[in-house]
Amino acid sequence: MVTMVFLTVANLIRVRGPDEYWRKRRIFRLAAHYIGRRRNCYSVAVRNVHRALAYVTKARQLKKEDMKDLWNTRIAAACEQHNITQFQLKEGLDRANILLDRKSLSNLASWEPRTFESLAAVAKQKLELDGFVDNADKQYPTGIKLNLKDVMLEAWLKENKK
Amino acid sequence: MSAAKRVQQWATFARTWHVFDCKWQDPYESANIIKKYLMGLHKPIYHPLNDCGDVVVCINSRNIALRGDDWRQRAYFHHTGYPGGASWTLAWELHNKDPTLIIKKAVYRAMKGNLQRRHTMERLFIYPGEHIPAEVQQNVSNQIRQIRRVPERLDHIPEEEVKNFPKVMDYPENYILK
Asked: Would you identify the CATH topology of the domain A64-136?
């Protein structure tokens, strides 16, 4: 009897080892909850398991994005009730050194609405103190009220143009 | 669950009926506002699987205002499914046939196409005029703010008010169109 002996490294990669039963069993364990040939037939099962594992890898990131979207929606809804935008809330709380993330804020919005109301009030007050107007650091215009007769000649205004 | 908590639960998940006046409003901008209330996106308890949407009653859908040249330019597509069954209806034609359809289609298109959309649309009532049936009106408890102010027409303002309105100067007679 002649046994094949691979001497080059490239060929060694193709040798999958003697424990075929255990290798297949590992796949079948992951395919246990499938139905039909997808769980009983190895060549079908392994394709589906690999695809499922790829989905799981992607879903780990997608789940985080979905949750972030949901929290954003909830915070936006709560902000609207208190007449403040989500951006203003975040900016105000950051400046007041209240470092709450989206998850905590949305939890507070649904479970402790009064706490959220206070936070919104704090943010609004802080922005007012900092002179944060129209989403930018600037002050309300000061000075005397513009009057038409200050910028135009009174004689001209009273003149009858007919 | 205590009695107070139970009532709080009811109050949280109860449906509110909103009324929205479409008079002089852009249907495609209003659709985004209406959608928000229909789907419950205005509540901090929102979840896609959570049945927290409200009911919206639109009135005066006959008096909507389309942008620019849209009454003549915008076409609504319909296909009967048979060969040659395609038809394009202009916005003004559609509005003449059914004054509620433009706003209905605008809200329908504003929502994402999923199984929930048709059920959500069931909670939208549209009336062409100001009249709402009594059984609908008795539920309404909130009004949604309009996006735009309804413009006031000069010929609808009483003449005396126009005459007494303060002005900077009188135009020379040569400048007034006869």
From this structure: c-terminal domain of poly(a) binding protein (1.10.1900)
